[in-house]
C-alpha cells in the first residue's frame, strides 16, 4: 500500500491488519522470574508440574481417625510434615490445616466437634456435607494439565497459580518499547492557549494509553514539538526507531504544506500496513512497517493531530498491534445495549463516545464529542460502534470498543 493509495480501509479490517502485523513481528519469548512476570504475557502453556494438591491435604484443624470411636491418639501431623500411616482401628492423629492426611484415615473430625475422656481418648462425629474436610490429590489439577493457554495476560492470580505449581520463572513475550513524537509548531507545552497557539494535550496523555496496552515508554522516549520540516521529522523518527519497537507520532498525517510524515516514511523505505481508515472521528490515521538496520521491522503509527481522533487512531491501530506484539489474543468487542439513538456516518464506521451504566451492559452517549474535544472522552468508558450505512436505535445490541481502564477500576 502506497502513500498515494488513500482508499479508506474498513475499520474492522484495519484492526485485523494491525493485529496480524504485530503477531508476525512478536519477538522471541524470554524467561522471567515470577515477581517480574506481572503484566507480561504467557508464551507457553502453564501446565501443572504435579497433581494439585500433590497429596491428600486437611482443610481443618482436628483429628484424622480410623475405625470406630473412641479413638486413641497416636501422634500429630503439622503442615509441612510427612504423616505416618494409621494402621490400627480405634486410633487417630491430631492434624493441622494444610497438613498431609495419613493413609489409612477414614475421616476427619473438627476440633470443635470433638471431646476427650479422662483417658485422653477422642470422640466426635465427622461432618457430612458437600465440601469434604480434606482435598484429594489432583482435585484442582492433574499433573501435565494445561491450566492457562499461551497468550494469557499475567496478573497476580496467574503468578499465584504458577507458584502453587512450583514454577520459579515463566516464559513470556517481551514488552514492546514505544516512543512518542509530537509534531506541530503551533503547540504549546506549558501555559494556557492563545494568540493562535494551542496547548499540546497528546504528549501528556498518549504515554498513559500506551502503558495501559502493555508498552514500555520512558520519559526520555517522548519528544516534541518536532519542528515542521522534513529534515527534523526524519531525524526525530530515525532517533526514536533506534530504541523503540513502535513510534507513535501526532499530527502530520495529511498531505498539507507542513505535513512531512508521508515523505519521511518514503525516505525510510517504510511499507504501509494501513493508510487511512474509514472511521469517524479518527481520519486520517496510518500504520507503517519500517525496516530496521538489524533486519527486524519496527512500526510507526501516525495519529491525527485532533485529540479525540488521535485516541481513536490509537485504539484502532495501536491497541491490536501491541496485542499482537505481546502474543495476546486479538482484542474482542463486547456487546452492550444502546440507551438512545446513535446516528451513522455514511460509508464510514462511527465510533460514538458513551458511558456504561453500573452493570456495564447499557451504553449512553456523552456530549462534547468533536474530534478536537477531550471533555467527552474524559467522561466515557469507550465507544459504541456504528457500522457503515446503519444507525443505532434505543435498545439495540451493539458492539462496544472499551477504553483501557485504570487497574482495578470498573464502570
Account of the protein in words:
- The chain contains seven helices and 27 strands.
- It is α/β, with parallel strands linked by helices and 411 residues long.
- It has four domains: 9-27 and 176-325, MoaB/Mog-like domain (Molybdenum Cofactor Biosythetic Enzyme, Chain A), CATH 3.40.980; 30-51 and 139-172, Molybdopterin biosynthesis moea protein, domain 2, CATH 3.90.105.10; 57-135, Molybdopterin biosynthesis moeA protein, domain 3, CATH 2.170.190.11; 335-402, MoeA, C-terminal, domain IV (Beta-clip), CATH 2.40.340.
- The strands form eight sheets. Strands 17-14-18-22-21-19 form a six-stranded mixed sheet, sandwiched between helices.
- A hairpin with a 5-residue loop joins strand 21 (286-291) and strand 22 (297-303).
- Helix 4 crosses helix 5.
- The protein is elongated, with a radius of gyration of 30 Å.
- The protein starts with 8 loop residues before the first strand and ends in a 9-residue tail after the last strand.
- 39% of the residues are buried.
- Mean pLDDT is 92; it is low at 407-411.
- Its EC number is 2.10.1.1.
- Pathway: Cofactor biosynthesis; molybdopterin biosynthesis.
- InterPro entries: MoaB/Mog-like_dom_sf (IPR036425), MoaB/Mog_dom (IPR001453), MoeA-like (IPR038987), MoeA_C_domain_IV (IPR005111), MoeA_C_domain_IV_sf (IPR036688), MoeA_linker/N (IPR005110), MoeA_linker/N_sf (IPR036135).
Amino acid at each position: 500500500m502506497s502513500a498515494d493509495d488513500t482508499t479508506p480501509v474498513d475499520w474492522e479490517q484495519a484492526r485485523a491488519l494491525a493485529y496480524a502485523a504485530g503477531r508476525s513481528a512478536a519477538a522471541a519469548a524470554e524467561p522471567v522470574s515470577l515477581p517480574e512476570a506481572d503484566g507480561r504475557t504467557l508464551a507457553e502453556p502453564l501446565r501443572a508440574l504435579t497433581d494439585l494438591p500433590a497429596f491428600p491435604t486437611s482443610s481443618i484443624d482436628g483429628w484424622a481417625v480410623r475405625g470406630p470411636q473412641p479413638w486413641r491418639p497416636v501422634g500429630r501431623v503439622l503442615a509441612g510434615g510427612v504423616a505416618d500411616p494409621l494402621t490400627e482401628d480405634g486410633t487417630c492423629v491430631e492434624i493441622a490445616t494444610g497438613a498431609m492426611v495419613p493413609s489409612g484415615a477414614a475421616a476427619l473430625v473438627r476440633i470443635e466437634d470433638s471431646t476427650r475422656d479422662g483417658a485422653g481418648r477422642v470422640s466426635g462425629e465427622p461432618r457430612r456435607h458437600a465440601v469434604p474436610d480434606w482435598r484429594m490429590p489432583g482435585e484442582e489439577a492433574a499433573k501435565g494439565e494445561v491450566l492457562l493457554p499461551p497468550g494469557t495476560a499475567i496478573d497476580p492470580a496467574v503468578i499465584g497459580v504458577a507458584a502453587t505449581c512450583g514454577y520459579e520463572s515463566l516464559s513470556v513475550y517481551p514488552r514492546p518499547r514505544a516512543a512518542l513524537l509530537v509534531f506541530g509548531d503551533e503547540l504549546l507545552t506549558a501555559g494556557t492557549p492563545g494568540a493562535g497557539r494551542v496547548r499540546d494535550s497528546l504528549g501528556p496523555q498518549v504515554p498513559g494509553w500506551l502503558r495501559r496496552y502493555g508498552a514500555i515508554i520512558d520519559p526520555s522516549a517522548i519528544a516534541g514539538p518536532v519542528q515542521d520540516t522534513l529534515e527534523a521529522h526524519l531525524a526525530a523518527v530515525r532517533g526514536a526507531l533506534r530504541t523503540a519497537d513502535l513510534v507513535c507520532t501526532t499530527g502530520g498525517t495529511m498531505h498539507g504544506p507542513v505535513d512531512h510524515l508521508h515523505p519521511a516514511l518514503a525516505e525510510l523505505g517504510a511499507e504501509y500496513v494501513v493508510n487511512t481508515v474509514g472511521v469517524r472521528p479518527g481520519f486520517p490515521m496510518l500504520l507503517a512497517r519500517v525496516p530496521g538496520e538489524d533486519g527486524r521491522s519496527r512500526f510507526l503509527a501516525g495519529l491525527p493531530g485532533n485529540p479525540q481522533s488521535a485516541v481513536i487512531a490509537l485504539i484502532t491501530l495501536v491497541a491490536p498491534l501491541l496485542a499482537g506484539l505481546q502474543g495476546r489474543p486479538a482484542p474482542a468487542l463486547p456487546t452492550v445495549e444502546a440507551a438512545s439513538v446513535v446516528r451513522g456516518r455514511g460509508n464510514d464506521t462511527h465510533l460514538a463516545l458513551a458511558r456504561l451504566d453500573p452493570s456495564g451492559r447499557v451504553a449512553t452517549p456523552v456530549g462534547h464529542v468533536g474530534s478536537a474535544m477531550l471533555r467527552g472522552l474524559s467522561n466515557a468508558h469507550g465507544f459504541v460502534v456504528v457500522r457503515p450505512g446503519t444507525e443505532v436505535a434505543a435498545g439495540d445490541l451493539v458492539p462496544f470498543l472499551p477504553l483501557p481502564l485504570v487497574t482495578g477500576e470498573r464502570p
